[in-house]
Design a protein that fits this description.
single chain; mainly alpha; 2 helices; 0% strand
Length: 57
Amino acid sequence: MKPGFRFASSGLRSLIRLGREYKDKREVLIRALETGKKSGISNRAVRCNLEGSKNPA
C-alpha cells in the first residue's frame, strides 16, 4: 500500500506540482504537433519515414 501524506498541505503541493508537470508536457506536445503540421505533407510513406530516421543519409 502506498503511504499517504502526513499533512494535507503536502498532498496539495504534490497535486499542484503534478498539474504543472502535466501542463508543461502537454504544451511541448502541442508545439511539436504544430511544428509537424507547418512542415507540410510528405509524399513518402510512414514506413519510409521511419526507416529514414533510423538510417539517416
